[in-house]
Write a structure and sequence with these properties.
alpha/beta
Length: 324
């Protein structure tokens, strides 16, 4: 399968606060919050959901097509992605705006407070998927990830018009979107990705029940944090996959992106949904053990050893052909 991933391209400025955010909040003063946190360190990392997902897919050898917008400061980042198996030929370069930036502080409980500067991401709405498809010889699936909201709507409508299967993945953009926009973005999706909280927010904003939403998408993929992932289809028993055991919880940033990278890679190989979810969960475990979203190294023998321990020899035998 030829998979394109649309979504943000950004640099992440990640900080760690040694205390707990909850201890700094005064219940009857939440309407006038004014806080500053003295952090221990600052790490500047490559990020953005589109780039993170593509990096993971590139590590697995599936050569994804990154579709997004960046600034003139993207050259070094582009070279990094190219070296790690990502097709960056469809990234639009802005002439006037910097690449987007995410600034995030994580506390001792792994809670996060973040801000996102869109920058060049706002030009992603000017990208036409037909040109991308023509350049690479066709697209079998487009993941529409968190990006400029207008770009997300345009890409969704174009996928529907051109009969290109697509996956809806709103992520942090749910907070900005209206119920009408969310209904447009998910209706007809082959896959709908969200975490458990986002699942409830989607239902609240659209006014559709869980059953109604499931009837409008092919598959509903819900990540469950430390409990793994659940995949649902109309008329089928839900598939639930647990997480592989992690060595340490270092940084949760980018874990969801890594799951998607592994899951989409599994789809491109044609393995079952259960196996695809297991690949995604294993890759997500590598990311939570690493500071930053693209700082992990996928050593294939190590990956397969841990995959086998987590999911068994039968699962490993089906996956090893593609990983080894």
């Amino acid at each position: 399968m030829r998979i394109a991933v649309t979504g943000s391209i950004a640099t992440d400025h990640l900080m760690t606060f040694p205390g707990r955010f909850a201890d700094q909040l005064v219940g009857d003063q939440l309407h006038t919050v004014s806080l500053s946190f003295l952090v221990d360190n600052l790490d500047v990392r490559r990020g953005g959901v589109g780039a993170n997902i593509c990096f993971g897919m590139g590590q697995l050898g599936t050569r994804p097509v990154l579709v997004g917008a960046a600034g003139a400061d993207f050259d070094e980042y582009r070279a990094w992605l190219d070296r790690h198996g990502v097709d960056t030929g469809s990234v639009r370069i802005s002439e006037v705006l910097h690449t987007a930036r995410f600034v995030c502080t994580t506390d001792a409980d792994h809670n996060q407070i973040g801000s996102f500067y869109t920058g060049a991401m706002s030009e992603a709405r000017q990208i036409e998927l037909k040109k991308v498809a023509d350049r690479v010889g066709g697209l079998d699936l487009v993941l529409i990830g968190a990006d400029d909201p207008e770009a997300m709507l345009r890409h969704t409508e174009e996928c529907k018009t051109r009969s290109i299967p697509f996956a809806a993945d709103f992520s942090q953009q749910i907070a900005r979107m209206s119920g009408d926009d969310i209904r447009t973005l998910l209706d007809g999706a082959t896959y709908l990705f969200s975490n458990e909280y986002e699942k409830g927010l989607i239902e609240s904003k659209t006014g559709w029940t869980d059953e109604e939403i499931l009837g409008k998408v092919g598959h509903r993929v819900t990540t469950l944090g430390s409990r793994g992932v659940r995949i649902e289809q109309v008329g089928q028993d839900a598939i639930e996959v647990g997480c592989a055991e992690e060595v340490a919880k270092v940084d949760p940033t980018g874990v969801g992106d890594a799951f998607r990278a592994g899951f989409l890679s599994g789809l491109s190989w044609g393995v079952s949904l259960e196996r695809a979810a297991q690949i995604g969960c294993m890759l997500a475990t590598l990311v939570i053990e690493t500071l930053g979203t693209q700082e992990y190294t996928l050593r294939r023998a190590h990956f397969m050893d841990r995959f086998t321990k987590a999911y068994g020899h039968e699962a490993a035998a089906e996956v090893r052909t593609y990983i080894a």
